[in-house]
């Protein structure tokens, strides 16, 4: 895979931006045309019971789209998080929708229906207003991904602009394969949290080139923490999903390479200011 290719202007003009789509439209764009059926949609009015009590306007789908359909004619469940609602944060309802859909997909496989999963990550992680309820829901998502990925690939996509942080960055790491754009960011803690806890000298949350150099899509692919770097283009992203699904279930998932990552972490010198190049070298040396 060429992660350093350039694009001519004619190609750029033909592209349709994936990032500019809503979560629901992203789901519709990826699934086979006409196959999408939304479950627990906005007209079902299943929304967070906790936000309104805290003076926060709710959304009738709680910011999570659950879509059933096909991808290249194979049964597929697609989970899309709407980054425009509460920063894509997950609470009790949204988390349960994702976990439940993944659990049902695993049951499909046990019953002879080869259902794959695609998860679109635009999320800051747990919803602070729902605290432990959100944490429990995200833990259930982790468990459901691990269950399903033993049968069929689970494809994660982080395109932008919110990124993927907190407990959902762990969910992304558990996926069989992870697709990112250059605009994507993936990290356990967001820039603002790191600056708050470690100080601006350690991490300046306003320094966008610095942030992307550590957590952006290019760096994550170069560090082998993501599998495919793509342009912001619907057709290109869909093609990459198809290519990765065709690879089947990995013999060893990234999250199972424990010895590799322990060796890498042993090389970290906390007294030295890290650089993107250093991070790439450390991950390479761990293998």
From TrEMBL:
Highest taxon of source: Bacteria
InterPro entries cross-referenced by the UniProt entry: AcCoA_carboxyl_beta, ClpP/crotonase-like_dom_sf, COA_CT_N, Malonate_beta
Residues covered by the CoA carboxyltransferase N-terminal domain: 1-199
GO molecular function: acetyl-CoA carboxylase activity; carboxy-lyase activity; transferase activity
Pfam families linked to this entry: Carboxyl_trans
SUPFAM superfamilies registered for this protein in UniProt: ClpP/crotonase (SSF52096)
KW DNA-binding (keyword) present: no
Protein's UniProt keywords contain Transferase: yes
Entry keywords, A to Z: Transferase
GO biological process, any: malonyl-CoA biosynthetic process
Gene3D superfamilies assigned: 2-enoyl-CoA Hydratase, Chain A, domain 1
Protein name per Swiss-Prot or TrEMBL: Malonate decarboxylase, beta subunit
Originating organism: Solimicrobium silvestre
């Amino acid at each position: 895979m060429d992660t350093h290719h350039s694009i001519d202007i004619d190609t750029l003009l033909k592209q349709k931006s994936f990032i500019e789509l809503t979560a629901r439209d992203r789901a519709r764009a990826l699934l086979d045309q006409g196959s999408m059926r939304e479950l627990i949609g906005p007209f079902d009015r299943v929304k967070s019971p906790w936000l309104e009590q805290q003076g926060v306007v709710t959304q009738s789908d709680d910011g999570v789209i659950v879509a059933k359909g096909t991808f290249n004619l194979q049964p597929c469940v697609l989970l899309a998080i709407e980054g425009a609602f509460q920063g894509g944060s997950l609470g009790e309802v949204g988390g349960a929708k994702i976990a439940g859909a993944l659990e049902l997909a695993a049951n499909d496989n046990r019953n002879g229906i080869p259902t794959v999963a695609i998860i679109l990550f635009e999320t800051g992680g747990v919803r602070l207003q729902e605290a432990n309820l959100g944490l429990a829901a995200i833990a259930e998502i982790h468990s459901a991904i691990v269950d399903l990925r033993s049968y069929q690939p689970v494809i994660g996509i982080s395109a932008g602009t919110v990124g993927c942080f907190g407990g959902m960055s762990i969910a992304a790491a558990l996926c069989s394969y992870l697709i990112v754009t250059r605009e994507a960011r993936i990290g356990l803690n967001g820039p603002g949290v790191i600056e708050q806890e470690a100080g601006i000298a350690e991490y300046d949350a306003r320094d966008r080139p610095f942030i992307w150099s550590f957590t952006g899509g290019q760096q994550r692919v170069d560090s082998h923490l993501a599998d495919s770097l793509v342009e912001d283009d619907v057709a290109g992203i869909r093609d990459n999903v198809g290519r990765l699904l065709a690879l089947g279930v990995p013999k060893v998932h990234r999250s199972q390479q424990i010895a590799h990552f322990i060796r890498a972490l042993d090389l970290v010198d906390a007294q030295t200011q890290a650089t993107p190049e250093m991070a790439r070298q450390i991950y390479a040396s761990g293998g």
